[in-house]
Each structure stands twice: as structure tokens, then as C-alpha cells.
Design a protein that fits this description.
Blueprint: H1 5-22, H2 28-47, H3 50-66, H4 77-100, H5 114-117, H6 135-154, H7 157-168, H8 173-180, H9 184-201
Helix pairs in contact: 2-3, 2-4, 3-4, 4-8, 7-9, 8-9
């Protein structure tokens, strides 16, 4: 009697979850509840586009759910999930560029786009000072955050991923190395290059002294 690929896939997935249950890992419902926002927010950071982010998050979560049985606890579950999302983005980025080139948002678009106004994830420039904000101050902060996001998207993928994991998600160098599957020294080098690139690109946003 022939067994269909679909039946084999379903059996494999059920076996993975049985294995995960035996090792006291979260259930599928737990993963969606506890990590759904994290996966989507990281997807937004990586793609810079909410439509692509939804596709990436869906693809990543399917792989997370199907691969739960392969998680061996060598790193934290959160770090492993980051690794899956990063791998999905890296593997699919070229395909997305071909398929959706006509619908991709330009990095030079006006900074008043809906994407920069969404609140699901904290903006990359949220740490910029904003004391007693009036209308002018609010506008300046909005523009600054848009500039930071734009320059982040211009970084090479390896540097952008490391910056997001460090500065936004707060991972340690060791955790980032695990997620990116590189050495800690490589992580430090990528972060140093990324920070220097951003420092030069955003020099006009640096606070000026009274005598300036």
C-alpha cells in the first residue's frame, strides 16, 4: 500500500510534537501565544516592509512548528526561534526581490508612510532624546526615527541582522553568534562596522553644543 507524501509529512510532524512533549517543550499553541509577536516584529525589522514581514512570519512559524522536535536545547528557545526566522529571511530574500520588486517600498519614500506609524514594534530610533515634546519636537523625532530605520535597511544583511539582535532584541554576543551561526568575534566585528556606518550616515542627527 503506497503512502502519500502528505501522510508521511503529517506523521513526521506528529512524531516531532510527541518528541517535543516528552522533553517538556511548549505546545504549538504556547509557541504562537508566547512568540507570535516576537516573530512578526523581527520580521518587520528584517524586511522593512509589513507585507513581506507577514509572509516571512508565516513561513518562519510553519518551520518553527514543524521543527520543534529538532530543538535540542543547545541554545535558549528564544535564540533558536531567532535563528529560524533569520534563516527563512536569508533564504527567501532573493525570491521576494524578484517577485515583489514592483511593490517594494523605496528607501527614499516620504517618511510619513504608514509603515513608520505602526506600533507593533518599538522604533529603532526610540532611544533618541525627546524632552518635553511640542509639535516641532515630535516632528523632529519622527524624522529621526525614519532616518535610523532607513539607514539600518541600507546595511549589509549580516550587519543589519546583528544590529537588530543586539540593539533591538537585546541578545548577548554569544546568543547572536548562535543565532547567526558565526563566531563571537565575527559578531563583534560586524557590529563595529555597522555602528561606524550608522555614525557617519547619521552624523547630522548628533546633538550639537551650545557654541555650534
Amino acid at each position: 500500500m503506497a503512502i502519500s507524501d502528505e501522510s508521511m509529512s503529517q506523521a513526521s510532524e506528529e512524531s516531532a510534537w510527541e518528541d517535543a512533549a516528552q522533553r517538556d517543550l511548549p505546545t504549538a499553541a504556547d509557541l504562537v501565544r508566547d512568540y507570535g509577536d516576537l516573530v512578526f516584529n523581527l520580521s518587520v525589522r528584517l524586511t522593512g516592509d509589513r507585507e513581506q514581514a507577514r509572509d516571512l512570519a508565516q513561513d518562519a512559524f510553519l518551520r518553527i512548528l514543524k521543527g520543534a522536535g529538532s530543538y535540542r536545547g543547545d541554545a535558549s528557545l528564544r535564540t533558536w526561534i531567532f535563528q529560524v526566522v533569520l534563516n527563512c529571511h536569508r533564504n527567501n530574500a532573493r525570491w521576494w526581490r524578484r517577485l515583489k520588486r514592483g511593490r517594494t517600498v523605496s528607501l527614499d519614500e516620504p517618511l510619513t508612510s504608514a509603515r513608520t506609524e505602526e506600533k507593533e514594534a518599538p522604533p529603532l530610533g526610540s532611544t533618541l532624546p525627546d524632552v518635553s515634546p511640542g509639535p516641532d519636537r515630535l516632528f523632529e523625532g519622527h524624522v529621526a526615527r525614519g532616518r535610523v530605520e532607513m539607514e539600518m535597511m541600507r546595511l549589509p544583511w549580516q550587519q543589519r541582522a546583528a544590529m537588530i539582535l543586539r540593539e533591538v532584541e537585546g541578545l548577548s554576543y554569544k546568543e547572536i553568534a548562535v543565532a547567526l551561526r558565526v563566531r563571537e568575534g565575527t559578531v563583534r566585528s560586524r557590529l563595529a562596522r555597522a555602528r561606524e556606518t550608522l555614525r557617519v550616515a547619521l552624523a547630522d542627527l548628533a546633538p550639537r553644543g551650545d557654541g555650534a
